[in-house]
Amino acid sequence: MTIRHMPVAALTAAALSLIVINSPAFAQGAAEPQATQPMQGTAPAAISDQKIEAFAVAYLQVDRVRQDYAAKIGAEKDAVNKQKLQNEANKQMINAVEKSPDMSLDEYKTIITAAQTNPDVAKKVQDKLKTSDTAQ
Predict the structure, then answer these.
(1) In 10 A of CB 68, how many CB atoms?
(2) I want to staple 82 with a disulfide (CB 3.0 to 4.6 A). Which of 22, 76, 94, 135 is the partner?
């Protein structure tokens, strides 16, 4: 994988591929009030190392699904079939997060947002992805 040298923008863009705005699962999750499973803010101290590690595991699973579907989606000429593949990929990516130990979809989205807005969180995530990637 090429995660070792991935800048913050690319990291968050790839991670956000999980959540497509027109995805029904995302729309349902976005409509839920944030009070259902709030994290304790987005400060680096509020996101434990365990959660960062769980995020890295989930992220790598999501990235595998994204890579698996990217070629299929890119090769598809028919717009309807392309959309079906995109929807299938989104479901698989959401499923990958939900099956990851110690990580919920809400937590995953919270950490992505924190990494986009807080350089310290982004660095922690990148560092964990580097060590997770080399361990595989």
Answers:
(1) 12
(2) 76
